[in-house]
Design goal:
- This protein has 14 helices and 13 strands.
- By secondary structure, the chain is an alpha/beta fold.
- The protein folds into two domains: 202 residues; 253 residues, Nitrilase/N-carbamoyl-D-aminoacid amidohydrolase (4-Layer Sandwich).
- The strands form two sheets. Strands 1, 2, 3, 4, 5, 6 and 13 form a seven-stranded mixed sheet that branches. A six-stranded mixed sheet has the order 7-8-9-10-11-12, with helices on one face.
- Strand 8, helix 11 and strand 9 form a beta-alpha-beta unit.
- Helix 1 packs antiparallel against helix 2, helix 4 runs antiparallel to helix 5 and helix 6 packs across helix 12.
- The longest helix has 32 residues.
- It starts with a helix and ends in a 9-residue tail after the last helix.
- The relative contact order is 0.13.
- The model has no long low-confidence stretch (mean pLDDT 87).
């Protein structure tokens, strides 16, 4: 009975790294939507699909522990189960109305970016397009989708095609009715694109001019024992020493040197320990470079902060960014006072204190911003940085807990999607890899391999131009939510008269 949902889930995760059979996303979604149209037990179908798909997509967090992987997998199953139930309900109430079901998809993608626990946007369908078409002849089309509509809006466009096919196969109505619906939908999307082209592109041609060129170094110091549960003697000190040693090997002048998240530990915070600040100051003066350093520090006994400290060319601490969005079951325990009895949760003894907003740092008159780890999977933090004026965004991340799963490559896909959507280059710095330089069109200029101790350097061009997405956000989803609501609440609407 649930074979369609199981097969759909299998095809879905196969479209993501490390498998990268991107074209399987279409039959996966087609089979899933068809199962919801034809199966009365829609909640279970959605639950099974979500658990199968995300159980493998998120396989890398098993190194954190089953206590993290199991809840997140079940949580995604429940999210898809609730969505499936709503989808089936709306389908019966709207007589297979394409616009109503499209509105349900649009709303679901928006909700999952914020709920539960602040959202879990990993695995958006549109990102798989960056594993195949973006490097082939369809590059221009993919670029346009993300630039205009962002990862969420692009996912809506991608999902619309298998949805209309599923409706056409399932429905007792004539196929041409759905062809008409999809034609109207396509014309609306095309009209929005033309509007963006005229209003934004033509009126902001000067903004295409590059603001500056920055010579940047990513220090990937690696870990002597990668994996959240792996422990070795003086692990954090060894990580710090490795990043310092790699930095000392650099020659020449750099505008910015980046150390990833957790490259310093509780005992190596440059904001607290003068010894560490002196180490970095020497290198800042020698390389004539600013530094962006990722690390964490204890606060009292039960809390900690995850920071990115900005150090100028004189070796002085100028400012810092505090991570705003902790990883559930990784950097804090939801409902801790009710769950402390579970032994594995003792692996997370402290909860992270959240920062209160983005920060802008100045490097050679260029505005840069940073997000830390999990935040890089969210569209809103990158967009917020751009709206605050950032011309380049740095992602500081650890990723040791992902092991050799495909999650490191999945993270880079999300960074590429956010680079295109916001028209900004992204510096993706990870302790254990993969680190990468990504230009404003989502092209990976260079990247490292997993568990490699290396320094990656590139000259990166900062950008100022706003994209339709960076300007308006997830507006496409809101448009079709309204469109679907009208179609649901007004049975004899104008669409049926066309």
């Amino acid at each position: 009975m649930f074979m369609k949902a199981i097969i759909a889930g299998l095809l879905y995760f196969l479209s993501f790294p490390p498998y990268e059979f991107w074209y399987l996303i279409f039959p996966a979604l087609l089979l899933f939507y068809y199962s919801l149209l034809s199966n009365e037990k829609s909640f279970l179908s959605g639950f099974i699909f979500g658990c199968v798909a995300y159980g493998v997509i998120l396989l890398g967090i098993q190194s954190i522990g089953l206590e993290a992987w199991i809840p997140l997998t079940i949580l995604m199953g429940l999210m898809y189960g609730i969505f499936a139930k709503l989808f089936s309900y709306l389908n019966t109430k709207s007589e297979n109305n394409f616009y109503v079901l499209l509105a349900a998809l649009a709303a679901f993608d928006l909700i999952r970016a914020y709920f539960p626990f602040g959202g879990f946007p990993w695995g958006f369908p549109s990102t798989v397009l960056l594993t195949g078409p973006v490097d082939g002849p369809l590059f221009f089309e993919v670029l346009l989708y993300f630039k205009n509509f962002g990862p969420t809006g692009s996912s809506l466009l991608l999902q619309s095609f298998p949805l209309i096919i599923a409706l056409g196969i399932y429905s007792k109505y004539k196929q041409k009715n759905y062809f008409k619906d999809y034609t109207i939908f396509s014309l609306l999307v095309f009209s929005i694109y033309i509007f963006n082209l005229i209003i934004i592109d033509f009126n902001n041609q000067d903004a295409y001019i590059e603001t500056s060129e920055l010579n940047i170094a990513i220090v990937q110091g690696n870990s002597p024992c990668p994996g959240a549960k792996n422990r070795c003697t003086n692990e954090r000190q060894k990580i710090y020493d490795s990043h310092l040693t790699q930095t000392q090997s650099l020659d020449g002048n750099f505008d910015l040197v980046v150390w990833p998240e957790s490259s310093t530990g509780f005992n190596n915070d440059p904001g607290i320990h003068s010894r560490v600040q002196k180490d970095i100051s020497i290198q800042a003066l020698r390389l004539d470079s600013n530094f962006l350093i990722g690390g964490d520090r204890p606060v009292q006994n039960q809390y900690f902060e995850n920071y990115g400290i900005f150090i100028n060319k004189d070796g002085e601490i100028v400012d810092q960014y505090l991570k705003q969005h902790p990883v559930p079951f990784g950097e804090y325990i939801p409902f801790r006072k009710y769950l402390d009895w579970i032994p594995p949760l003792a692996l997370v003894p402290r909860d992270m204190i959240r920062g209160d907003g983005q920060k802008i740092f100045i490097v050679n008159d260029t505005k840069i911003s940073t997000v830390i780890s999990f935040e890089g999977s969210f569209q809103r933090y990158i967009r917020n940085s751009v709206q605050d004026g950032a011309e380049l965004v740095v992602i500081l991340t650890n990723q040791a807990s992902y092991g050799e799963s495909g999650m490191s490559d999945q993270f880079i896909l999300m960074s590429r999607a956010n680079a295109i959507s916001n028209g900004r280059p992204i510096v993706h710095a990870a302790i254990t890899g993969k680190s990468a330089f990504i230009d404003h069109k989502g092209k990976v200029i260079s990247k490292t391999e997993l568990f490699e101790t290396v320094v990656l350097t590139e000259k990166i061009h900062a950008k100022q131009k706003e994209t339709p997405y960076s300007k308006y956000g997830n507006y496409l989803n809101y448009i079709f939510i309204v469109f679907g609501a009208i179609s649901l609440l007004w049975p004899k609407n104008i669409l049926k008269k066309i």
